[in-house]
Amino acid sequence: MNSQRTQNIRTVSSRLNSFHSAMYFSETVGREYAKHGLEPGVEGNLAGRSAPLGRVNAGVVSAAYYNYSHAFLSTQFPKIWDTASPETMVQARFDAVAAFMAELFDSREDIALLTEAATQVATAVEPVLANMDFSGRVLAQATADALTAHKPNTAFERLWGVATIAREFRGDGHVASLVTTGVPGIDALMLDVATGASFKPRAAQKTRGYTDEEWKAAQSRLAEAGLITVGEDERGFDLPAITDAGRDLKEQVEQLTDGTVAAAWSVLSDEEIEALVSPSRSLIKVLAQSGAFPASVFAQPAKKTS
């Protein structure tokens, strides 16, 4: 693929990821999950995203998610399934998405234009989904099976489904790329944090369940390798910052990831992919305006999660 085509796929993929992942920080979504006895936030989100896999144990979730602490997930699974079954949570996530999308879009005066943008993006990306080979992509395949069996009620719910499958497909490819380059999950998370364009350090550590000892060990390892430097934030907490070598490593992984999705996107021409840049931008602006990515969690609006 030429560089502009690759960059446009990255841009659209990043925005699809944001459209999917904004729900993880929503109080509205948390209240929907709480109806089923789950704590809003990490517990509910783990249940909703894992549900398409069925009643799996912590090992399956840890392997699929890649950058979560296995020890932490072992405290969550199978306990979560004793509270709410996977089947319950598949439907609960659809209910949560419906409530979240209604909250975001229903009262907006420009809803007609935004509906048109959501329809345009979903319609254009659906052939990409149809062209996907899910071999070796366990989370993406399970998610696609669950989502394609569901009938969305609005253009925004439809786009969320499209975005979610595309996100998990690229995400599984990203995991394979990290494995290929020998970057462990916690290191990948630390490097992402160190860019200053994703999770804040304490938020990343907490949501992924790493202990202070594990976090500091990874930080020290990456600093010794010359991939990050470590300073302090305004409160005196460690603040990793990525180096040129760290950026080079991340770009190497991203280029491998680009290769894992190239065949799926080959169904669209360069012009068709470029045509998605503008409408996807309009939709992401709504997320930014709504505060969907809270400043307490992100250094700036999220673009990617492993």
UniProtKB/TrEMBL annotation:
Cross-referenced InterPro entries: HTH_67
Annotated NCBIfam families: SCO6745_fam_HTH
Pfam families: HTH_67
Domain of life of the source: Bacteria
Protein name in the entry: SalK
